[in-house]
Amino acid sequence: MNAPEPGPGDELPAVAPQLRALRRRAGLTLEAAARSAGLSPAHLSRLETGQRQPSLPMLLALARIYGTTVSDLLGETVAERDSIVRASDMEPVHAGGWTYVQAGSSGRGMQALRVRVPYGTQGDIVRVHPGEEWLYVLKGRLRLRLGDTVHLLAPGDSAHFDSLTPHRLAAEDHDGVELLFVHTLLQSPTATLCLGHLTGELP
Hints:
6-stranded antiparallel beta sheet, 5 helices, 11 strands, disordered N terminus
């Protein structure tokens, strides 16, 4: 699903100023980074200049490819690595229709997020990448496709899987679904992640 074009009054995530610098720090050309993320160079260029809003899967893809974290992409800095994350410090970020908050410390080998997925957003995006993912349904019902199998998860259900298995997530109900989501971060600029529609390529 394409991210909506921002209007004059829209607020973009703080990711745009960071993307180009982090890509160059990883030693990647625009074309190489876009290819690794399953994007076109033109689409990645629009993300870097703030003309398009990134979705959460795009942020996860670029973070892995650049060997960093979503927090780094968003320009978040912390004075020191803390074991405790206070609710008052969890600022929601809206991207690609999803709402998510950081639920763990930055700079770790895993990243924890609390995610709200509205109905009808990003359900056609298939993800394949190294690592593992764990998710837990807090509210609503999640339709999770792993390979050729579709699972319907209710509140209290969880899933833990190798993320090299093609997978996609969608809210089953019109009220959306809320998740706890944990994934491993591969701190390597050569880590690859394929991100695209079941048919065709993301623009």
